[in-house]
Amino acid sequence: MNLTPKQKAFADEYLICGNATEAARKAGYKQPHVQGSQNLEKLSVSAYIAERQKQIDNSRIADVKEVLEFYSSVLRGEIKDQFDMDAALSDRLAAGRELMKRYDKSDDGKKDALTKLDEVLKEIGGVI
């Protein structure tokens, strides 16, 4: 996507405001009401806008690793609540259940998960 600096500025402004005329005005076009709509019709500009929007959307959505890290932090008691208090035991147990759901659903996966859980409980002095 080879865009001129002005087209790139237009596209970036368009992503912010969503208005072609306003984006063209901020990008420095002399006839923003005409050139804004013309830019949106250009394949290179619209492709750039679509790609940037996809990147923005992807950065807003948590990926699997981020979710698992969050649940693990809650389970370990590393996350505080809105009053800077330790997470309740019920929240920590719920995080543990959510993590266990993500293990392989096959019998081998269940056995592995239960074996790991058994080892952790033995380490902390729990009894199954």
Average pLDDT confidence is: 81
**Shape by Cα distribution:** elongated
Briefly note the structural class of the backbone. mainly alpha
Number of domains: 2
Low-confidence stretches: none
Q: Major beta sheet, specifics?
A: none
Number of strands: 0
Approximate helicity band:
over 70%
Q: Can you tag this structure with a few keywords?
A:
2 domains; single chain; viral genome packaging; Arc Repressor Mutant, subunit A; SPP1-like_terminase; 128 residues; 7 helices; mainly alpha
In short:
This protein has 7 helices and no strands.
Structure write-up:
By secondary structure, this protein is mostly helical. The chain folds into 2 domains: 5-60, Orthogonal Bundle (Arc Repressor Mutant, subunit A); 64-123, no CATH class. Helix content is 71%, strand content 0%. It is built from 7 helices and no strands. It has helices at residues 5-17, 20-27, 32-41, 43-60, 64-75, 89-101, 107-123. Helix 2 (20-27) packs across helix 3. The radius of gyration is 25 Å and the shape is elongated. Keywords: Viral genome packaging, Viral release from host cell. It holds the Pfam family Terminase_2. It comes from Blautia hydrogenotrophica (strain DSM 10507 / JCM 14656 / S5a33). This is Terminase small subunit.
Please write out the topology.
Blueprint lengths: L4 H13 L2 H8 L4 H10 L1 H18 L3 H12 L13 H13 L5 H17 L5
Helix pairs in contact: 1-2, 1-4, 2-3, 5-6
Protein name: Terminase small subunit
Organism: Blautia hydrogenotrophica (strain DSM 10507 / JCM 14656 / S5a33) (Ruminococcus hydrogenotrophicus)
Pfam families: Terminase_2 (PF03592)
